[in-house]
Specification:
The structure holds 2 protein chains of 2 kinds. Chain A has 16 helices and 19 strands. By secondary structure, chain A is of the alpha/beta class. In chain A, a hairpin with a 7-residue loop joins strand 13 and strand 14. The longest helix of chain A is centred in the first third of the chain and has 16 residues. The mean pLDDT of chain B is 97.
Chain lengths: 430, 174
């Protein structure tokens, strides 16, 4: 019987099988940020175990609230900073070098095909775009991971998401994943890995694959995952060129992880994206999804473009095409947060930030801030935000606020109109 | 081992998420105790008032996909510091469920029909329950009725509960 990519990764990392289908696996990377790690650090100190299993395999960033907004967030940053120094964690990203974790760490080449990765952050599933098993965990799992380099999971069952056809102009990975979640529900992939396959995925950039995998957890999935291919090799090449003789050699090594043709799946979803239109959420759950046309005219107070879902250079480029030489509606507050310093610099070099600023957007430093209502764009009671983020939970961006999730193109068009609307890049009927 | 008994809080809605259990603005706290006043502050549930409804409750009974969303362990911690160590649901989001057992707390899943039956029989009445880990039984009691419901608990989950959590278990084994 063949194996899925997730099963192959588990088998290559198994440390123990304590009971039933529970497997303790060895970790290749443990990622940390300043919100969920400090409690683990303080507990390790309390227990006289202020050490890490391997400083080279731990990467840390201050990203959720940066620059610190008050004494409490300053203290959280300090705990992480001091800990990174004490434990010789070289890859620690503080202000000036920091960015949204799930955009920053891939950009630094920290995720490779076949890796096992945990982080105290549910959107860790993003890194599955590289053919890795990457899962969000709580602080206790993180603490054990930091100390011992292991984590326990159920042996992975996988759900195959087959994406066929051609994406129409103006329809993006964000629309695809919203449509998939809309179909299977917020509980549709719980305790399973969502394996994204098919020509649509093959044609996607790494950025688009990250958008796809980023929201796997919104369907309950442990991880999203894509097969490594030449796109993966090209993206990682600057970091791996000393390890492989050629790109083809790297490709051959990476593709050994790919699922066998006779692998067994727990569920298959088939979607032809050729007729897909831009999508938007309407309620307080990410599976409450409609075509943008069905929500057109809904007024918005704020438009937020950024986050680990859609704050990458491709996202900013698309939004800038929509915004070029135009002004956002007076009634709208536009906020763009390039997800990392490199994205920020690239957007600056390409004149994209100029376009945003001319249109009336506020450009903020890279941070998670507004997405979870912690800083940098919190909503007031009764306000509505068109956002390129991943969660529309009640109160997510601020108590009493409403969030509509959408692609950067739709968000930019909605900023110009002052209400939810399709972008001119989409030529479909709706 | 923690205590798994007490008065039941009925939360009659599916997909209750972590942001409703503990909003992100409180994630700047670095002590579990500081989360105590904010449990379920943003819960969208008709008629629910955390200030009064949480009083003297030690157990939650709820529907499917409880704890979906964020990985924040602050969600189970907020229950823990309010004296709630047992949550019974049709199903849990993976990370939330794992966080419960990692903290030595008990998350019990029951079939939909059983949950429906418990809501029908006991919701609105002052109800208590005790989880008996030796016999794998939940013993519900309310005025005018009682019920014995069997549950399953995986061997590994049982060991985490007995060890007091994943840290203690991992320390002993790895």
């Amino acid at each position: 019987m063949g194996k899925t990519i997730a099963e192959k990764i588990f088998d290559a990392h198994q440390v123990d099988n304590p009971a039933g289908d529970i497997h303790v696996i060895r970790l290749d990377a443990v990622f940390c940020h300043e919100i969920t790690t400090p409690v683990a650090i303080n507990d390790l100190l309390l227990r006289g175990k202020d050490r890490v299993f391997d400083p080279a395999k731990i990467k840390a960033v201050i990203d959720h609230v940066t620059p610190a907004k008050d004494s409490k967030t300053a203290a959280q940053g300090k705990i992480l900073r001091d800990w990174a120094r004490r434990n010789q964690i070289k890859d620690f990203f503080d202000i000036g070098r920091n960015g949204v974790c799930h955009a920053l760490f891939p950009e630094k080449g920290f995720v490779r095909p076949g890796y096992t990765v945990i982080m105290g952050d549910s959107h860790t599933c993003t890194h599955g775009a590289f053919g890795a098993f990457a899962a969000g965990v709580g602080t206790t799992d993180l603490e054990v991971g930091i100390l011992k380099g292991v984590c326990a999971f159920q042996y992975p069952r996988s759900m195959k998401i087959e994406l066929s056809g051609n994406l129409p102009a103006g329809v993006y990975a964000k629309d695809v994943i919203l449509a998939v979640i809309g179909r299977i529900g917020v509980n549709g992939a719980t305790n399973r890995v969502m394996e994204f396959v098919g020509p649509v995925v093959t044609a996607m950039s790494m950025e688009a694959r990250m958008t796809l995998c980023n929201m796997a957890v919104e369907a309950g999935a442990t991880c999203g995952i894509c097969y490594p291919d030449m796109t993966t090799v090209e993206y990682l090449w600057p970091f791996i060129q000393t390890e492989y003789q050629s790109k083809d050699a790297a490709l051959t090594a990476f593709q050994a992880w790919n699922s066998d043709p006779d692998a067994v799946y727990d569920g298959v979803v088939q979607m032809d994206v050729s007729t897909l239109s831009p999508m938007v959420t309407y309620g307080y759950k990410p599976d409450q999804v409609k075509p943008v046309a069905a929500m057109a005219g809904t007024p918005v107070d704020q438009v937020y473009i950024g986050s680990c879902t859609n704050g990458r250079i491709e996202d900013l480029r698309v939004a800038a095409v929509v915004l070029k030489d135009k002004k956002i509606k007076d009634s709208v507050r536009g906020i763009v947060s390039p997800a990392t310093p490199d994205i920020y610099k690239q957007a600056l070099a390409e004149g994209i930030l100029q376009v945003f600023m001319e249109a009336g957007f506020c450009v903020t430093n890279p941070t998670c801030g507004a997405c979870l209502g912690m800083s940098n764009g919190v909503l007031a009671d009764g306000e509505v935000c068109a956002a390129t983020t991943n969660r529309n939970f009640n109160g997510r961006m601020g108590k009493g606020g409403m969030v509509h999730l959408m692609s950067p193109a739709t968000a930019a068009a909605s900023a110009l109109a002052g209400h939810i609307t399709n972008s001119p890049l989409y030529h479909g009927k709706e | 081992m923690k205590r798994f008994d007490g008065n039941v809080l009925f939360l009659d809605r599916a997909d209750i998420n972590t942001d409703e259990i503990i909003p992100a603005k409180y994630l700047t706290e670095i002590s579990k105790e500081a989360l105590k006043p904010y449990l379920l502050e943003d819960l969208k549930l008709k008629g629910f008032n955390p200030a009064t409804d949480l009083m003297d409750k030690q157990v939650v009974l709820t529907r499917a996909n409880f704890g979906c969303g964020s990985s924040r362990e602050h969600a189970p911690w907020a229950f823990e510091v309010n004296g709630i160590h047992l949550i019974i649901a049709e199903s849990f989001a993976r990370i939330f469920r794992q966080n419960m057992f990692n903290c030595g707390m008990l998350a019990i899943e029951l079939p939909r029909e059983t949950i429906d039956g418990l809501f029908t029989r006991f919701s609105g009445k002052k109800t208590s329950v005790r989880a008996d880990l030796a016999s794998n039984l939940l013993l519900f009691e309310a005025e005018g009725g009682r019920a014995e419901i069997s549950f399953t608990l995986g061997e590994y989950d049982r060991r985490l509960i007995q060890a007091g959590g994943w840290l203690e278990y991992a320390d002993a084994h790895y």
